[in-house]
Amino acid sequence: MPPMPDQRPPSVDAILRAANGRLSGRDHDAIVAEARAVIDDERSRLAGGAAASTVTELAAALEDRLAALDEAPGPEPVINATGVILHTNLGRAPWATPAIEAAIRAAAAPSMLELDADTGRRGRRFRAVEDEVIALTGAEDALVTNNNAMAVALAVGLAGAGGRVVVSRGELVEIGGGVRIPEIIRRAGAALVEVGTTNRTRVADYEAALADETAKVVLRVHPSNFQQTGFVEAPDAATLARATHEHGAIVVDDLGSGALLDT
Prior knowledge:
Blueprint: H1 12-19, H2 28-47, H3 55-70, H4 97-108, H5 127-137, H6 148-160, E1 164-168, E2 174-175, E3 179-180, H7 181-187, E4 191-195, H8 203-210, E5 215-220, H9 237-246, E6 250-253
Parallel strand pairs: 1-4, 1-5, 5-6
Antiparallel strand pairs: 2-3
Helix pairs in contact: 1-3, 2-3, 8-9
């Protein structure tokens, strides 16, 4: 019986030599990592009974892998026909042209991102944006965060820690990424107080929970990606805010998408 052919893939060095300098200018560690991936693929092929590739073919496969990394197009553009206007999984909303142009200008050169021009020392990174938010909303101050869930967690943590946070049962929702309102409240060190029912909550329900004045926060939660219809009721925001303030607590209002106008 003739001897079985060698079914072991060539070494990394052999593949790099076969590439014959066509990989110059690239990071060596990255090339080696991709070469090992090519060898792993070849080893799997051989284990499945496939014929062995030549070292030249494996060198070409390595070049193809590196070229694919160079040519990766990034996120693929799509048409949002889901019916959800601000769809997180589709990148939410396209930017307005002035916003795109402003981002290009900001990325094209160094800027006073986090430097106080008056003192020459480190300043606040997001202050310019926060000033705009204050002007738009009339708020006393503003803080920019990475996403809405973080904003809710910070607001509840700062205002409600050590006390009770009152939430309607119809607003104990889960948003994207598995973030749940009861868990946010628990991690903030506060106690959750549920009021009302799943479909109907009134100001009187909140007032009953606020009566002993141990609650620090009333949290109004945006329903996110679902709607309740039919036999439902929710209190007017301004009326609820007045009742809450009378009991020495504050209202944290989660706007969800951040839309300041009624859409």
